[in-house]
Design brief:
Oligomer: single chain
Helix content: 25-40%
Order of helices and strands: EHEHEHHHHEEHEEEEEEEE
Strand content: 25-35%
Number of helices: 7
Radius of gyration: 19 Å
């Protein structure tokens, strides 16, 4: 079984609470994926990184990919695809950009740059945003043709993403996309791409809401009881911590 997290956003207490919940699972978790937004404009961002870098004895070593906050951090340090963190400044202002700069050292930035863009396991793509970019936010309201386009780009049957911060299961029963290219002199013949039944899954957010963290458990095939056939397992988990201590489904 896999535990899939996203959006710790420098919230060390939330991350510790989720790790404890993972350890309580009756079915052993064999892989831990963190789909970006580990850091944020939060002074505890480096504590989260150090915790990820140094799992305790018996804990899984997290597999980490970059997210939106990491990309904004790269831009601040002149290491990104853009010269300035324009998305960050437009959304949160220059004070937040300054706080992000103060919260993450150059050493940590270099470590983050070595993280993956995403993971392809079996027929599953695990990524922060989508195949387009880390900023691409897929939600339950995203049009089906757009979902199909994101899945078709990598031939994945299941796309796990964390950008929206929501937990959701978006089922595509099967469909097709028509496309053509218009040049200066003529239009190319129409092409039709068909796809089988596929899903997009929002994995939740760990650190954004104080006292509450959401994440996802997934196993392509799980034996639920003796004598039962193997079947897929997908479960959304909610963990309450601090003054809201506890857990739920």
């Amino acid at each position: 079984m896999w535990a899939i997290l996203s959006g710790i956003e420098g919230n060390i207490a939330a991350y510790e609470a989720v790790l404890a919940d993972i350890n309580r699972q009756r079915v052993k978790v064999e892989a831990l994926y963190i789909l970006g937004d580990i850091i944020a404009a939060n002074p505890d961002s480096e504590k989260v990184i150090r915790r990820i870098q140094n799992p305790l004895p018996g804990e899984l070593e997290p597999q980490v990919c970059v997210g939106w906050w990491e990309e904004q951090c790269f831009a601040l340090h002149g290491l990104g695809s853009t010269a300035e963190p324009t998305e960050l400044i437009d959304r949160f202002g220059k004070e937040t950009a300054k706080l992000l700069w103060d919260s993450v050292s150059r050493e940590i930035v270099q470590w983050l740059r070595n993280c993956h863009f995403g993971f392809f396991e079996l027929d599953c793509l695990l990524i922060h945003g989508s195949t387009v970019s880390v900023s691409d936010e897929l939600t339950p309201e995203t049009p089906p043709w757009q979902m199909l386009d994101r899945l078709q780009r990598v031939q994945a049957n299941h796309l796990f993403c964390g950008r929206s911060g929501q937990v959701f299961k978006y089922q595509l029963q099967g469909g097709s996309v028509n496309s053509s290219v218009m040049t200066l002199d003529r239009q190319q013949p129409l092409q039709t791409i068909t796809a089988p039944k596929r899903r997009v899954i929002g994995v939740g957010n760990i650190g954004r809401e104080s006292g509450k963290a959401t994440y996802t458990l997934y196993s392509p095939k799980s034996e639920l009881a003796k004598g039962e056939a193997l079947r897929e397992r997908l479960e959304f988990k909610t963990v309450y911590y601090g003054s809201k201590k506890g857990f739920g489904n």
